[in-house]
Design goal:
3 helices, 55% helix
Amino acid sequence: MTDPTIKTCIVKNCTNKSNEGLFLGDLCAPCYEFITQGISKHSQAYRNCLYLLEERIKVIATTISLQNKWTSNDVIRMLNEVFK
């Protein structure tokens, strides 16, 4: 039977339980440290941010790629032809 006093960290995908280590409110210590201080690479909160950072980098790379294409002489020439 599970103990109702044991809590799981509320960070998405974090499986740390209050009976396994230090908890600060509803957060395990690693997630709490990352959220409040930006440290603790062993927290699920950190790993969740890596995914978001990776997605942001993809968006930036795509934007740069499109900007490079739109500034090429061929595209500028084509647009000048279209909008004469």
